[in-house]
Specification:
single chain, 348 residues, alpha/beta, 7-stranded mixed beta sheet, 6-stranded parallel beta sheet, 11 helices, 17 strands, binds NADP nicotinamide-adenine-dinucleotide phosphate, binds zinc ion, metal-binding, alcohol dehydrogenase (NADP+) activity, oxidoreductase, alcohol dehydrogenase (NADP(+)), zinc
Length: 348
């Protein structure tokens, strides 16, 4: 068993501190990844602060992992030492159920094993990407195209796939009008992907402070949701609303912005229950839906699409000593647009 250095929270809400962790012995299908960069997803904060229910501590968060393969198990066929790879939110699934066979491992009937705050099928607790190394089955690694630098690719492993998946599924493309709510880590990638897919994109942000960035990322318009007139002006405008907000929203107001037959898809995951009036859906035969990350084949498709269309995350690269401060800034919507940890600084 070898060891590596990682950032760990000892208890719920505790500060992240450098610590030494064990790495499992290599199984036949395992690769060792020397992690270069790890993105900070708002989901990391929800879990470290135990906002989604009981979590496992000590916790090493991180499911936006980009690095280089440094060792391979005896049976590994897909990767070799030196390959550039990423790992997202999952590290194992049964591989046999209808969803695994269909490349939707996130719906594995046995339960997908999450990258951290989870338990492997062997009962061992999983540890995430705020770490210098990780051991993972080659089945849950994806190839990072050469056109993408590792630092700006890392956030694609969660924020990228979580927005790409519903945009594809709900038909964002030429002739559709898409609104992205919340211009944070997920939202800014949602704007870039929706625009690259050919949709006409509008950003709905709390204020106008990020307007210039919205337009730079490919949106044609940006509106402040704190201004009640926005909801009057935009009534009945959109085919699809992608909600990436980490807090609860007044759903009825947002549903009124959909055209008849339109859909509002939620990826933002606040802990409190949301409410809406049935008539907000019935009047225009509208849909209110959710979307959960994406499977491994689609994650590879998303990375290849990103490389082809020049899509990368806008990042603020930080050292390990700035992670706790970064958490507060994310919660205050003060990130442009994803913090990425340079893992070489952990414990340095
Ligand atoms: P983030 O970077 O903090 O972005 C969230 C954005 O929402 C903020 O930048 C802000 O945008 C807006 N916002 C924040 N608080 C708000 C409030 N009280 N009212 C209105 N708008 C508010 O977070 P993220 O990393 O993108 O994650 C967003 C959410 O998605 C989190 O809840 C996360 O857990 C969840 N998530 C879900 C999945 C999934 O599979 N479904 C995967 C990953 C993450 P503006 O400044 O533009 O208003
Ligand atoms: Zn995430």
């Amino acid at each position: 068993m070898s060891r590596t250095t990682a950032l760990s929270a000892a208890t719920a809400g505790a500060a992240l501190e450098a610590t030494s962790i064990e790495l499992r012995d290599l199984r036949d299908d395992d690769i060792v990844i020397d992690i270069a960069f790890a993105g900070i997803c708002h989901s990391d904060i929800h879990q470290v602060r135990e906002e989604w229910g009981t979590a496992i501590f000590p916790m090493v968060p991180g499911h936006e992992i980009a690095g280089v393969v440094s060792e391979v198990g005896n049976g590994v066929t897909r990767y070799k030492v030196g390959d550039r790879v990423g790992v997202g939110c999952m590290v194992d699934s049964c591989g046999e159920c209808e969803y695994c066979k269909d490349g939707q491992e996130q719906f594995c009937t046995k339960g997908a094993v999450m990258t951290y705050n989870g338990k492997g099928y062997d009962g061992e607790e999983t540890k995430g990407g705020y770490s210098q190394q990780v051991v993972v089955s080659e089945r849950f690694a994806v190839r990072i195209p050469d056109a993408l630098e590792l630092d700006v690719a890392a956030p694609l492993l969660c924020a990228g796939i979580t927005t790409f998946n519903p945009l594809k599924r709900w038909g964002a493309g030429p002739g559709t009008k898409v609104a992205v709510v919340g211009l944070g880590g997920l939202g800014h990638l949602g704007v870039k992907f929706a625009a690259a897919l050919g949709a006409e994109v509008t950003v709905l942000s709390q204020t106008t402070s990020k307007e210039a960035d919205s337009l730079k990322f490919g949106a044609v318009a940006h509106h402040a949701t704190k201004d009640p007139e926005t909801f009057e002006k935009l009534r009945g405008s959109f085919d699809l609303i992608l909600n990436t907000v980490s807090a609860n929203l007044p759903f009825d107001d947002y549903l009124s912005l959909l055209k008849p037959n339109g859909a509002m898809v939620n990826v933002g995951a606040p802990s409190d229950p949301s409410t809406f009036a049935a008539f907000s859906l019935i009047g225009g035969s509208k849909a209110l839906a959710g979307s959960n990350i994406g499977g491994i084949p689609q994650t590879q498709e998303m990375l290849d699409f990103a490389a082809e269309h020049g899509i990368a995350a806008e990042i603020e690269k930080i050292g390990a000593d700035k992670v706790n401060e970064a958490y507060d800034r994310v919660v205050n919507s003060d990130v442009r647009y994803r913090f990425v940890i340079d893992t070489a600084t952990i414990g340095a």
